[in-house]
């Protein structure tokens, strides 16, 4: 049985991790401090060391140095917080086998352990040839963020997924609306049934009904075969209509009818087909505004919007940025067959200061391009497109908050940016919540 030394000062977390590892047939000793770990290492031989980066009496890097001095071949995996990823990257250069960022999921832990033990069995690490390869540690395609905005998003997904409620997902372009829709499907009772995603913005209105409901061969010029429509294809599962605001008025009527009757009739057919679908829609437009203007039917709007979820913009998920960057880097490494291990400090600062108007899609593209352009194992500023550092994010925290003239505007701006969340707005303004309340009272902003 392989033996792991787990070094973690958080007692309940280490207990949980130990139990998990033991359930997977590893023998685990726990050290709560660096001293504790050193004593255990004197007494026992371990196949793998899994250590927190920060320990009460030192850090994982010190342990790395000690092991190196002893010419140890035991792979070391560091557990880090997201803000410490660049330190972990430095540690890997000094010989750590891998790092894993908290919070991590069980599959990631297993994958890292397997990778490390595999390398130990096949090719013991030596102190001179310790150029570790960063392995993909993320198993699925959904990263659950750690920011407050991401946490409430995850909570909403969990809440609504197991129901049959129609969900309207809103949010800027590239925030991950389709990924959220897929996730709702995967967490629903319909997860073994089809998930059919349709981009309504890409369907010309003349052929929309044939796309949605299908057609019979010969029913119109160009109908050379029978075609199954999206409703029928999604039968039993989930139909996801993206950019739903782009549907023509006529298509909206057809959609509403299909949703009310739960039956569709392919063009040219005389028989109706019963369909059982769960509907999820998404839009980056203000649909209520479209309802007001009369371009979107109010009855359809209410039908689609039994529950709505707003996917936060990347600029409002600052705490998640490094986590997503790391995820996209792993993905790009795999796609481009590279093994870049991280970003320079300067690049991370540029990422934090940029506004990301294209959200996660833009971040993913920037990282893929940079991965392609980077010849070394760390992404530097030179691999980034210049718009990232020529247009820094306006920071409401700095500037002239103390000057009375614009104080009120800054507060309004921060409240708006934080979706009226006072705690978050206070954070943006770098003042306490109490000060924010006082100032709101002063400026009559209640
Ligand atoms: N939670 C997530 N974890 C990992 N990757 C994500 C996540 N959310 C989004 N992405 C990635 O970000 C990119 C944009 O996501 P998606 O296409 O779902 O955005 P969208 O809001 O539907 O965009 P649009 O409004 O343009 O249709 C995709 O590459 C997707 O894989």
Automatic annotation (TrEMBL):
It comes from the Bacteria. Residues 3-117 form the Response regulatory domain. SMART domains: AAA, REC. Transmembrane segments: none annotated. The modification 4-aspartylphosphate is found at residue 52. Keywords: ATP-binding, DNA-binding, Nucleotide-binding, Phosphoprotein, Transcription, Transcription regulation. Residues 143-372 form the Sigma-54 factor interaction domain. Coiled coil: none annotated. InterPro entries: AAA+_ATPase, AAA_lid_NorR, CheY-like_superfamily, Homeodomain-like_sf, HTH_Fis, P-loop_NTPase, Sig_transdc_resp-reg_receiver, Sigma_54_int. Signal peptide: none annotated. This is Two-component system response regulator HydG.
